Amino acid sequence: MSVLQDRMLVDTAWLAENLNAPGLRVFDCTTHLKPDPARVYAVQDARADYEAGHIPRAAYIDLQGELSDRTSPLRFTLQSPEQFAQAIGALGVGDDSDVVLYSATSPMWATRVWWMLRAMGFDHVAVLDGGLKKWRDEGRPLETGSRQYPKAVFTPRPRPHLIANSHQVRAATDDNATRIVNALSRSSHAGDAKAPHYGRPGHIAGSVCVPAMGLVREDGTLRPLDELRQNFEQAGIAPQDRVVSYCGGGIAATLDAFALALLGNKDVAVYDNSLSEWAADPSLPMQTDA
């Protein structure tokens, strides 16, 4: 039986108590984004930070280098089921594993890997609330160097309804039954002149904005469920709605998807390539609030 027992979110006390549970795999998923005038952000792995201090027994996931499609011209594109199974199995995640994911910065890096696993049919995965910061702040022990789990066999069972592409999002712009949610900041959504954009300012036509960072408290933990629910309700999102979440490259969007899943919504897809793809195609409609 899974030690997670259907938990999607675990706290530091739970992890400390279960750190030596058989089959538990803990991963630091941190990635750094550096400002880059040519591509909005440059991607940099955080392996050096991980090696300088991480939760004991945790291994590291290089999201761009290990779990993204290297053949895609866009960053962070989800791999094919076969590629993902090989890559995640090489990291030590197998069909019988329990997985806890955390980040040293924004939880969106952990929720990205959570979403990828869920999209591939794997449910025994949770995110550490508050991540490495909360673990450190509580004075819990750290480990240096690196760790690698034994290779495992992962069987992909794809869930296509959790993954959206540009054609599906385009159709959703004319479909009142599907709500499109932008996880970027309100200034980016509005198309403010000083806000970062991905080729064209603004947002996907008809979408509403629920900023991912508004779902997190200052200490890095997620807001209580009633506050999360209020954030979505204020944007007109009902618990039973079919939702497609997007952002710049499919990362922050997974934090919105994770929050909605915590609230019980089982019909939330992530637009994998998000505005990195959408804004580059002038035939796809965008809006600003100007």
Query: Can you tell me the residue ranges where pLDDT is under 50 for at least 5 consecutive residues?
Result: none
Main β-sheet description: 5 strands, parallel
Tally the helices: what do you get?
11
SSE topology string: EHEEEHEHHEHEHEHEHEEHEHEHE
Number of strands: 14
Mean pLDDT over the full residue set? 95
**Category by helix and strand content:** alpha/beta
Q: What percent strand?
A: 15-25%
Question: Numbering strands along the chain, what is their spatial order in the largest sheet?
Answer: 1-7-6-2-5
Share in helix: 25-40%
**CA distance, first residue to last residue:** 54 Å
**Rg to the nearest angstrom?**
18 Å
Shape: globular
Describe this structure in words.
With 290 residues, the protein is of the alpha/beta class. It has a five-stranded parallel sheet. Strands 8-13-12-9-11 form a five-stranded parallel sheet. Strand 6, helix 5 and strand 7 form a beta-alpha-beta unit. Helix 5 crosses helix 10. The longest helix has 12 residues. The model has no long low-confidence stretch (mean pLDDT 95).
